[in-house]
Design goal:
mainly alpha
């Protein structure tokens, strides 16, 4: 009976492994077919919550880390193989959402693209939670810490983009600059809460990277200042977490 159960588990594990690979191929293909069109469209939309172009190179790091994770989850002796079973279909869902977002955005279906972005964010939250419930080791969470961090920033940016393209750049009496400063603060709070709640020093570094890019790209003095202050607060919080983790190790 135990042997039959073990065979079933191995079979299910292989199914998720290859489904994950299929999702990754679909996602990468969608990016290749996009050919940078989404970036060019984004460049034509003027919002303050948008980092400098070089910041988007983080996608290369994310895809590289996901590729390494995929290779390791294919090999049964690595823990990533066990984790892929825990994740189930959610990685595949995240890949489909990533590709669908590119398609929606390139066709300028901005409301639909924001909905898909939320689906992507939700799928990554589930993946992170499932990994975290399996192991606290940062090695296994790192690819998704960076991924979910960047998608968190991108979701906020997409909200601003939708407001601008729909002509609703003033909300509750606040314009683009005011909302940008507010959301920079919200992003800091989100990053610190996530970091401290999960003992994850990687997640906030994505916000630091993005906020430095917002500071570099902004021609609004107040927004630039708030972005810079936000970076300082995030780094301070990051150092505080490292100190806390070090105390735990020496205790």
């Amino acid at each position: 009976m135990t042997s039959i159960t073990a065979k079933k588990e191995r079979s299910v594990s292989k199914s998720w492994v290859w489904l994950n690979w299929a999702g990754f191929v679909i996602m990468v293909t969608a990016n290749i077919l996009d050919g940078g069109r989404t970036g060019r469209i984004s460049d034509t939309i003027d919002t303050l919550f948008k980092p400098a172009g070089y910041v988007f190179s983080i996608w290369g790091l994310i895809y590289a880390l996901l590729l390494v994770w995929l290779i390791l989850q294919t090999i049964p002796k690595f823990k990533e193989n066990e984790i892929s079973r825990k994740i189930g279909p959610w990685f595949f869902v995240s890949c489909l959402a990533n590709g669908a977002w590119l398609a929606m955005f390139s066709m300028k279906w901005f409301p639909a693209s924001l909905i898909v972005m939320f689906v992507l964010l939700l799928s990554l939250v589930v993946i992170y939670w499932k990994i975290d419930s399996t192991t606290k080791n940062l090695r296994f969470k790192a690819p998704f810490s960076i991924y979910i961090g960047w998608v968190s920033v991108a979701t906020i940016a997409n909200v601003f983009l939708l407001m601008e393209t729909s002509g609703n750049d003033v909300l509750l009496g606040f314009g683009d600059a005011e909302w940008t400063m507010i959301m920079l603060g919200v992003g800091v709070a989100l990053a610190l809460l996530f970091m401290l709640g999960n003992n994850d020093p990687i997640y906030p570094l994505v916000f630091v990277w993005a906020y430095i890019g917002i500071n570099a790209a902004s021609d609004n003095g107040l927004v630039s200042t708030v972005a810079l202050v936000s970076v300082i607060v995030l780094i301070a919080g990051y150092l505080l977490l490292l100190l806390r983790l070090r105390k735990k190790q020496t205790a």
